[in-house]
Amino acid sequence: MNGPLNGVRILDLTTMVSGPMATMMLADQGADVIKIESPRGDHMRHVGSMRKGMSASFLSCNRSKRSLALDIKRPEGLAAVRKLAATADVLVQNFRPGAIERMGLGEDVVRELRPDIVFVSISGFGETGPYSGQRVYDPVIQALCGLADVQTDHATGQPRMVRTIIPDKTTAVAAAQAITAALYARAQTGEGQHIRLAMLDTMVAYLWPEAISSLTWVGSESDPAEGQMGLDLVYRTADGYITAGAVSDSEWQGMCRALDREDLLEDERFATAGARAKNRPARRDIVGEEMERRPSGEILARLDREDVPCAPVLTRWQLLDDAQIAANGTIEIHEDDLLGKVRQPRPAARFDRTPASVQALAPYLGADNAAILAELGYSEAEIGRLSEDGVLAGDGPATDC
Amino acid sequence: MNGPLNGVRILDLTTMVSGPMATMMLADQGADVIKIESPRGDHMRHVGSMRKGMSASFLSCNRSKRSLALDIKRPEGLAAVRKLAATADVLVQNFRPGAIERMGLGEDVVRELRPDIVFVSISGFGETGPYSGQRVYDPVIQALCGLADVQTDHATGQPRMVRTIIPDKTTAVAAAQAITAALYARAQTGEGQHIRLAMLDTMVAYLWPEAISSLTWVGSESDPAEGQMGLDLVYRTADGYITAGAVSDSEWQGMCRALDREDLLEDERFATAGARAKNRPARRDIVGEEMERRPSGEILARLDREDVPCAPVLTRWQLLDDAQIAANGTIEIHEDDLLGKVRQPRPAARFDRTPASVQALAPYLGADNAAILAELGYSEAEIGRLSEDGVLAGDGPATDC
Hints:
Two copies of one chain form a homodimer.
Chain A: E1 9-12, H1 18-28, E2 32-37, E3 50-51, E4 54-55, H2 56-62, E5 65-69, H3 75-85, E6 90-93, H4 99-102, H5 107-113, E7 118-123, H6 138-145, H7 147-150, H8 166-189, E8 194-198, H9 199-212, E9 234-236, E10 241-244, H10 249-258, H11 273-278, H12 280-292, H13 296-305, E11 310-312, H14 316-319, H15 323-328, E12 331-336, E13 340-345, E14 350-351, H16 369-375, H17 380-388
Parallel strand pairs in A: 1-2, 1-6, 2-5, 6-7, 7-8
Antiparallel strand pairs in A: 3-4, 9-10, 10-11, 12-13
């Protein structure tokens, strides 16, 4: 292990995405993340495309971790997790409020075992309030936080969801940040603490700076729907789709030249930034028509020469061959003895002294049972007995898919 | 100041959103963030709704900071920033690659002044590669990273943008996490480092775990567009819009009862999770029709009684009065002598020992010039001279807007 969080041990009791993706970021940064799973395993193990019994979705949220799978409802299972908690710097859980206490791993219990632990509770809605007991699905948060409102269809007035799980993933990144901040504070003061993070709060804070800021001035609010990214900046070309933006005067002039429409430079409707904003629909129509007459490659080259920000709209397949993504090494291919060639994004932030990296692919269920228990002082015989008694669980590579 | 990052000093040379929102999170967590601005100030000061010359957008990306506004192109201005750099734990900049070196504040120069500094470079595309020199606009990243592809309109095949700046804001949270991790590493080793973070890389890593993970298996990829959140989960009711999701058997049964459609429990098309997934369009039509016949409040209460996850789709105005958001204290009202009542979201993560909070509203341009220079040892006379010579700049409250 290396990375900025080298030496940190995290007990990860989370499932699905918001928790696992948070601890994966920390694992890529060098933390020893031990994923505690029930004998059935994280639900994500069972969804999405599979290779040798490993789910791509699970792998993409749980790489660089170790797995300990055991029945926490059995006293021997709970005892093992408690022993492990005594060795951990951080414990993260995203059960519904109240569940972790009923499992016998509430903050009080754990802090007695490890007084300076950073205890982290991720929830959908918060600990109290009308929704707090509800199961959380990402779209429910999109509905409540204003994101579906941001996406309202202008023509029909119907709110719409973003078709990827923005609240889950944003909460993951925010949780990783908060955990790291608490570790920093502990390094200064020696004290751990409890971090509580709700997806709903995360999303309101995330949307606010741009999408909700017009509600800042109490008593003189303006409608957040006005002035937001309204017209879609995607243009259809003769052979695909591109995006291009001409905000400044010089960018607009460059766009006119790139499209062989120098005549528009004289057009009063587009003479200033203010006029262009006012006449956006007309401008979009004219520019769109010109775009449709040329192939993407030609327009992009012309816009580029004129210093107008532009890019092709890439499908996700096309990401794999994009020259910028290749130059950045954004997507890596890992060669695994069992799984073969596996694509993963590298950790986005590059640390020049303590590089973060994909430390390992994701573990099969219970892959590290024996190693972790041995580290805790369990003998081989004891581990064997726990396994026979069905306290420990695990699976391995499947051959059929 | 309090918060987990108490005692950390951050020199913030960033503008717009991705950098400023990152350092704002750290400022809310107790870091002393000094925003260095040109005499004209961050562009965000000039956009969006205003009160007394303060922009709501600027305030919402720059609260809890101090402002030092000076002409860095003048030797005396540069000298002051270098003196300040010698006192800083972190320097963050998001200029285009190469610019910070031309300004005389490249890593080599700064590290000589402060050997253990965490130096942070946020870019749109990375330091090299075909797009690296381009000005970055959020939609360009949405186009390149696959987000516009995720949003493709099924009917027309046209990619679409999300109408809020997801790449800017996600990069902000990821940058805040990376900076905090480097501070943690420095607390362990005494060494600073250089963090480089590209918006494009951030977004590929962010989208991957769910929206791109089907490209994980090299040689047996499946189309990422299949199996993603397809049908929009927003239902129109008699008087508004709600979301509701029935994934498990018990949730589906609950939904049938809530809609007085027990007959559907016998319907083979919906008998299992697999069948329901296959017959999603038909299911959506039937459920949608029932929803339209009832007001939101009635349906939500019925779904809630049946333990079916559901919520109203809130407009951003409605966030202000929502009972869950009120219970969480997600949105705070700050009373300011000058600006009056000001709404801001509280920092999402709640730390029970070192609480993060809105430490102050955002500063006017150069509001802290004198205080910061005095801390560096400048005399009152020297500060006066720099001000007279036009090296320092500043403004204050406007009376007209």
